[in-house]
Amino acid sequence: MSKELLSGNEAVARGAYEYGVRVAAAYPGTPSTEILENIARYDDIAAQWSPNEKVALEVAIGGSMAGARSLAAMKHVGVNVAADPLLTLAYTGVNGGIVLVSADDPGIHSSQNEQDNRFYGRFARIPVLEPSDSQECKDLVRAALEMSEQLDTVVILRTTMRISHSKSLVEIGERTPCELRPYKKDVRKYVMIPGHAKLRQPDVLARFDRMAAWSETTPINRIEWGDRKLGIITSGISYQYVKEARPDASVLKLGCSYPLPEKLVREFAEGVEKVVVVEELEPFLAENVRLAGVKIVPLGLPRIGELSTTMVKTAIAKAMAEPPPPPAPFAPEEAAGRPPVLCPGCPHRGVFLTLNRLRLIVTGDIGCYTLAALPPLNALDMFMDMGASIGLALGMEKADPANAKKTVAVIGDSTFLHSGMTGLLDMVYNGSHGTVLILDNATTAMTGHQDHPATGKDAKGRPAPQAVLEDICKGLGVRRIRVLDALDIEGLEQALKEETQAPEVSVIIARRPCVLLTTLEGRAVKVVDEACASCQMCMDPGCPAISWSDDERPVINEGMCTSCGLCVTVCQTGALEL
Known about the structure:
single chain, alpha/beta, seven-stranded mixed beta sheet
C-alpha cells in the first residue's frame, strides 16, 4: 500500500472511490469544490455538477434509493439550500449508503457568513463525523457509508477550510467493489405524505438511540490517556491544535461529534482532574458534554473565526492557573493588505462602471462580481445569497413602484441557473417592471471555472446539451431580452436606460467569456503622454494593470494588460491607444 500527499478534499474523493461510491453530485463552492473535481476523474463513479446544492443532494438521494453508495458535496451555506430534502431524508432513511459533505468556513475566508453545520446534525437527528487530517477524511468516508447503511440514515461528513485544503499523507488502497443493494418499492418509507411521515417519526427517534450506541463503541471516538491532571475533549481541526499545545494531556478525540458518546465522555471525565473542551466556532460539544452531566472548566475561546495553537495554549494555561506560555520566538508579520479586485480585462468591470455612472441601485449576487462592491467601482448596493438579487429587486419595487426604474438586479450565468430562474419567474408572474442583468462569462468563475448547464460540458469534460440563457428567459415569460457584448459600454448604457423605463420585465445578457479562459491577443495599451490631461479617468475602472506615476501619468503594466480596451474607451482625451 502506497502513501500520497493529499488535501482533505482529495482524500474525500479518494475515499469515495475506494469505498464504492457510484453516484456523486455537487455544486462548486469554496472550500468544497475540489471534492467533485477529483471524484470526476474516476470512471467508476457517475459524477456531476448539479445546478444547485438541493438538486445535488436529491441526485444522491435517488442514487441511494436505487441501491448505490452516493455522496453529495457542498460548502456550508449550500447545506441551507439543500436543507429541504435533507430534513425529509432524515425521515425516509436510505438504501445505499449516503454521505453529505459539508465544508464549513470558520474565519469567513470565502463566504457570506460563518455557520457551524454541526447543528444540522442535532436539528435533523442525523450523525456528524469530523476528520482531523487527510487520512481521516478518507477513513471517515468509509465509516460514514457503513454507518449510513447499518443505521438507515444519511451521515454528515463535516470538514473545515483548514482540513479541506491542507495536505497530509494518506494510505492509498484499491477500490472495493460494492454491488447495488436491491431496490424494493416501499411507499411508507420513501413517500413522505403526512400519514407516512407520522409513522416514520418513532423510527427516527428509535434510530437516534442506535446512533448513540454506535457512537459509544466506534473506534473513531477514542481516549488518548496522558497526564491525568488535564483532560481535553475535542474534534476536527481543533484536535491538531490540542496536540501541539498540550502534547502530554489526556485527550478524548471525537470523530463522531454527534450524537455524543455520553458514557465515553463520563468515563473520560472520571479519569482526569479537570475537563476542558476545545472546539472552533459554537460551543456545540461543550453544551452536549454539560447535558451529559459532566462539569467542564470554561476556556473562554472565541465563538468566531479559526483557532490557533497559541490561542489554545493561552486559554488552557489560564484555566489551569498556570503562568502564561512564553511568547513565540518571533511573531509572524502581518501580510500587506490587498483588497480583492476583479482580474485585468474582466468583462464585468465595464458593466459595473456603467451601472455606477448611471447611478442605478444595484442588487447583487454571489460571484466574482461581488468584488464590484469595493472601491473604486462601488457599484453594489446589496447582496444576500445565491440567486437573491432578483428577489431583492422585486421586493424593492413592491415597496415603491418607482424603484423599478432605477434598480437593476445583477446575476451571473451559473448563479442564474443555480437559483435565479425562480426569482425571474416571480418577477414575470407578479407583474414586475424590473430589469435583470445577466453577466454571462460562460463558466462558474470564482470557484475555479467549473462547468454548468449553459457551458455545453459536463463534470468530466464531455460534451453535454447546452442550456441557452435567452431561451430560458423567454420560457419564463420574459418578452424583452437583449444580448450584447459586455465590453460594448455604449450599447450597454443605452440598453439600461431603455429597459429600466420599460413597462414590463426586461433581461439584458452581457456576454463575454471570462478573461482567464481566453487566449490573449494583441499588444498592451500604450500611453500617449502629450495627449494626457492627468484627469485620472482611466483609473475609474480599477484595472490592476494601470497605475499612476509620480509625474501624473498612467503607467500600463504590459504583463497584465489584456488589451480589452476598456481604459481606451474611458479616456476622453485620446491618451490611451491600442
